[in-house]
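Ticket #4471: structure output looks truncated?

Reporter: J.K.
Steps to reproduce: submitted the chain below (149 residues) through the standard prediction queue, then opened the result file.
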Amino acid sequence: MHPRLLPVLAGAAALCLYLAFRGSLAPRTKASLVLPLALLGALVAGSPLPRERLDVTNLSAAYPGATLQFTGTAEKRGARTVLVRYAITCCRADATPVSLLTEHRLRVRNGTWVEASGTIVRDGGSDRLVLRPEQWRAVAQPADPFVYR
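Returned output as attached by the reporter:
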């Protein structure tokens, strides 16, 4: 679940609770409210947190704070490094590059395969998202250099 949806869902839940209690304005005992509240508590406590897995095939769904592990070839661009990997939908003829800009330059030569993991952050004041690498290392070229969507 995208973090921006949390306030909307919380508002909808609050509205539902308000309407449910408003509809039960008839004099009732406190015991009649125990069962609905217990069910609501069990639903909230028993529901697992959503686990979003961001990877190279769904970078368009990235948001600040998301964690990511990305393997690609390094290309230096000024004071930064771009990691590039090709994604295939059907066959090699439709391979398209998927690139991810890092927050700072990695000390590797162009064309080196790099595995980086870190957090997605905003690039300064812009809306562009970049990877803040917490760990990275040079790796051998994967047996299959493509990823599949």
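Triage note (M.O.): checked the attachment and the full token line is present. The chain has two helices and six strands.
Status: closed, working as intended.
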